[in-house]
Here is the input.
Amino acid sequence: MLDAAPAFNCVYRYDLVPGLQLHISIRTIEVTADSGSPCLVLEFKALGRPDGVTKLDADAWYERAHDMIVAQFLDMTSEEIQRRYWMPEEETE
Here is the structure.
């Protein structure tokens, strides 16, 4: 029987701009469909509040949060990972 890969779980919090925090977690899982092969999961979560109470304020916050998540993902991953596991919208059109 093979030894299991060590468990790994790490969470980072970034205060990027006022009203927007980005939480990034990296953890291991076992992919049961592939005989329990270890895999890394990279998760992004934006937390915060819009600058106002209107729908336009909320839309602006979500757009800013999305842009921050994409920028951090691109900074944290190699071009090979980006091409292999994630395809930017420009390439799908």
About this structure: The longest helix spans residues 55-76. The first strand starts at residue 9 and ends at 17.
